[in-house]
Amino acid sequence: MQPHRRPLPAPAPGDPRPTSPLVALPLLLLALQGATAAPAGSGGAEDSGWRQDAALPRGLLQQAARAALHFFNFRAGSPSALRVLAAVQEGRAWINSKKEYKVDLTFTTERYNPEEGEERLGNCSAQVFFRNEKPRPAINVTCTRFIENSKRQQEDHLLYKHMKQLKNPLDVVGIPDSHGYIDPSLRPIWDLAFLGSSYVMWEKTTQFLHYYMAQLSGVKQWKTNDDAIEFDYTVLLHEFSTQELIPCRIRLVWYPSKALKVKYHCQEQQTPEEASGTEEGSAAAPTELSNF
């Protein structure tokens, strides 16, 4: 039975898989809107089959915050606006008979690459719906202004201009190096890879598994006939809980202030049914976000 709740300010992605290799996020969200609604607040919880869980599972709030940030970073589509989790402030959760969790929480973030002396924090609120042990949680997240829109656009365009002026397309292996060092000239490539990987990490997150990009093991830049920058790269994602390193090949198409496009394939030991649902994905972010 569908739970009763206030309408969400924005639709959130959910169960169905994209059928096209590269799909615009607004269309994806429209298709998923009816399938991903989660209960909000405590009103009507008993009637809807949801009850508030007073004893939160260990790490559930942090897991929800990380998943929300992966989705937020991907949706923003800006390597200059990447955020990481600072601290969870508060949250509460509801559980239903299927052991699915709906989490409402607030948390603080900081820039992925803070400038020297910068200590500014941004605040976020999110609603995350974990479908038991299934990947790809449904997320609705809003964050306060963290970096001025004009500054973000300027930094993105400087990076874009640098990449377009390269005489030869990049063909890089191994970031960071064996000592954990990332050459400053390669940092933008790492950030672009992290941006694209955010989509993969969101799609693969479950209530019990979360991911972080551990290494960029190969990068190949393609010459394009349009203005976009296109990369083929391989990353190793650290899968927490299992402590495995998952290699994923990702295709990223990026242009500042335009839709981010991602397609990927990860090599894992899964059943065919599991693999078909989690190994490939594609989507694009809206050009602008109201909460930037």
The first-to-last residue Cα distance is: 36 Å
Globular, elongated, flat, extended or rod-shaped: what is the shape?
A: globular
CATH first level: which class? Alpha Beta
Mean pLDDT: 76
Major sheet attributes? 6 strands, antiparallel
CATH topology type: Nuclear Transport Factor 2, Chain: A
CATH architecture descriptor text:
Roll
Q: How much helical structure, as a percent, in the residues?
A: 10-25%
List how many beta strands DSSP finds: 11
Q: Give the structural class.
A: alpha+beta
The topology string of helices and strands comes to HHEHEEEEHEHEEEEHE
Instruction: Write down the domain tally.
Output: 1
* Radius of gyration over C-alpha positions, nearest whole angstrom: 19 Å
| Low-pLDDT residue intervals, each spanning 5 or more residues | 1-47, 271-292
Strand order of the largest sheet: 6-7-8-9-10-11
Residue fraction in strands: 25-35%
Question: How many H/I helices?
Answer: 6
Textual characterization of the structure:
The protein is of the alpha+beta class and 292 residues long. The chain has one domain (51-266): Nuclear Transport Factor 2, Chain: A, CATH 3.10.450.10. It is built from six helices and eleven strands. The protein has helices spanning 25-32, 45-48, 60-76, 149-164, 187-204, 272-278; strands spanning 51-52, 83-95, 101-111, 122-130, 138-143, 171-172, 211-222, 229-239, 244-254, 261-266, 282-283. The strands form two sheets. A six-stranded antiparallel sheet has the order 6-7-8-9-10-11. It has a five-stranded antiparallel sheet with strand order 1-2-3-4-5, covered by helices on one side. Helix 3 crosses helix 5 (187-204). The radius of gyration is 19 Å and the shape is globular. The two termini are 36 Å apart. Mean pLDDT is 76; it is low at 1-47 and 271-292.
